[in-house]
Structure formats: structure tokens, C-alpha cells
Amino acid sequence: MIKPFGFIKPKTVEEALSALQVPNSVCLAGGSDLLVEMRNGLKNPDLVVDIKGLKEAAEFSFDPRKGITIGAGVSLNFLAAHKGIRESCPALAEAAASIGSYQIRNRATLVGNICNASPAADMAPVLYILGAEMVIAGPGGEKTLPVSEFMTGVKQNALSAGEFVIKVNIPPLPRARMAFMKKQRVRGHDLALINAAGLADADAQLLRICVGACAVRPVLLEGTDELYRKEKNPDKLAEAVAGLASASVSPIDDVRASAEYRRDLVRVFARRIVKQVCAA
Amino acid sequence: METTSKETIITVKVNNISYTERVPCNMTLLQFLKDKLMLTGTKEGCGIGECGACTVIMNGKSVLSCLMLAAEADGAEIRTVEGEAGEQGLTALQQAFIDHGATQCGFCTPGMIMSAQELLERNPSPDREEIVEAIAGNLCRCTGYEPIIQAVQAVARDARDARNARNRGK
User: Which value does ipTM take for this structure?
Assistant: First the structure.
């Protein structure tokens, strides 16, 4: 049984911040993580603050030249179906479509996936390679934090008590090929035992690859731009990136896969991503 | 701003009937439907959002009622399986489930019906992949899924044939 709690649905950010001053209060967006945690006794809040009534939570804007803004209440199905995102930023749509089940995606949110901060968060690798920033509201005002600094550990984020994420900002999109990959035990509803996203911008000579579920936080590979610039042979580049990826992660054994399997798949995914995004 | 009360009052339309009820804030939508409104068609298979037996349609979208608080349904319109069959009898989808052996023990069926019905309302001619995606969140231990997919395909086919016949008649 879930411990009794109070419930409030604030209409403004100020009201939400005021509610979050109540000790042991939590934010509710899609609820697909929070309800499970409450059911399992992992979270026992005294007050649930439903942020879906805020107009900021519903905010969404898309312009490849200006960037993408995704409010805290925007659902994964909305992103997965959005025509502009599917065309200009397909890895984002694919990542969103890979989470849970259709019913879950009607409620679950991108912001919630990041705030939950599982190392296997499927939205994380894409946001890392795009350089996304979390916009945080708090008693001290509004601030932004790169997603890579926001996810601080296993199910840990950089929010202090009384703060919450209002939206995510993605900078203007690079003119790049993108890829997203996720390995599951089964088709359909499953967590990732490894996921990864990559993009290559041939004009700017940028190669970004991020691997998830292989360390306590998603791992953005370092030095990929240099490898991309130096190694023109696609097979050699793929091998070099595979080696870099393998050396950059520290996977564990868990119910979904062994560390050994993850180490192997990291190389496979790195190679496949390079081949897909660096195609001539 | 009252934050100490552990109860809240919600007004929700379920199968076209409006209800105003005082509910505990920690009551899930599933518990509300089954225990408060005595609409026991919706099932609890897992309670943690992994089986889909609790699927209902809220404001036109299929959702898992075990992962929602009743409080979140304030102001919403909900459809459960009890609202599907009407004066005309069973819906085309329900009849197709019977015709194609898509229901054995029946436990997954209310959730399956709501997921499949929601699909057909937003996409009257789904292909097999789209059907599979729509019901991937509904687990069935009996049928092996194939009869369910065929039932949905049959309804889509019949609707398409009826549309084509109407268009030819114009």
C-alpha cells in the first residue's frame, strides 16, 4: 500500500516552488517511475506536486536552426510522432519510441526520464550528443545545467531540495547524420542493457557518441572529433572508436546482461554507429 | 493552499457518466475504477505498469490506470471496457475477438480491447507492425498473440472494405 500523502496541482511555477518547500515532497509528471517507486516503498512522499498544470510544462518549440524546447510535461509519444523531430533529429524520436509501451509513452516524459537518472535512461545518450541543457526552477531563481552535469549517479540528479526541472533546451541542430541504438532482452517493453547515440557532422568535422547502461552515468566518448578528422578510412575509424568506447566504459553484471556481454556490445554499437553516421 | 489533507475531490466522466467523489490522494485510478465505481472490467495484472491489463482510454489516449493517481483524472474523460458494447451489441472489435479466438481466459482482454480500440480510432488501417506496437504493452499468457493480431486486422480490413464500397457508390 502506498503511504497516504497530500496532492496538489499548482497553476504557476511560484505555487510549485512553494509546494516543494514542504518537507518530503516530490514532483509528479508522467508518473511511470514515481508510481512504481511508491508502490515498491522506495519513495514515501508526504506531498505529491503535479506539475502538469504549469503552462511551462506544456511548452514545446521546434526549429532546427534555433533549437528544440521540451517542457517537463511533454510526453514521449508526442516526441516520437513529431514530424519535424523525425526528419531533423531522428535519434530523438527513435529514443522516445523505444521506451516502455505505447500506453506508458502517452504519459511518460523526456524530462522525467532524465530526472530519474537511470544509467540506462534511453533519452540520455541523444541529449548528451546534442549538448542539451536542463532548465531548473528553484527558490533562488532559474538556472541551466548541461545534461551531462545534471545526471550525477545511479538514480541521482543535481537537483537540490525545492528545485525542479521545467524544461530541456536543445541547441540549434547540427547538419548531421544521427543514430540511436538500444539492445533489449525482448522486443517491446524492456529497459536497455546497452544503448547509444551518435552523430557525425562532416562539414564541422564533429563526431559525438554517447553510450548508456555501461557505467554509473552515460558516457560521452572523448577525442572522437580528433579521430574523425585524422582517420579517413571508415573501417579503421570504426575500429578506433570501438576501442575508445571499450576503454571508456565500466559495465557491471546485472539481471539484464553480464559485464562481458556489455563490453562486447559496446564495440559492436560503436562500430555500427560510426558506419551509419559517417557514411560518405 | 491546503497541503495537509490526504484526500481530494475529483470530478471525472467515466463511460459518459459524470462522477464527483472524495478519494484518498494515494488511490490509483485503477483502484478508483474498481473499488469506488465498481467497474471491475479493468484488471490488475501487475500493478507496476508492465502487463497492460489495467489499460483504459483517458482523453482519447490509452493509459495504464495502475500508474495514475485518481487525483490526476480530475476533469478527464475515461473509457473502460464496460463502455464499449452498447445498444448495438458488441463492437466490431469485440466480435472479432470472439470470431478469431483472441480471448481464452479473458484476463488480458479488457486491456487488449482498449489498446486495440484506441489504435483503430487513431489509425483505421494499421499494418501489422503498427498493431504489434500498439499492443506490445499488453501481455497475454494464453493466445500467443496471433489471434489477437488477426482480430484487429480483420476489423481494419472490414472497415477499409466498407469505406471503399461507400466511395464506389459515390
Answer: 0.95
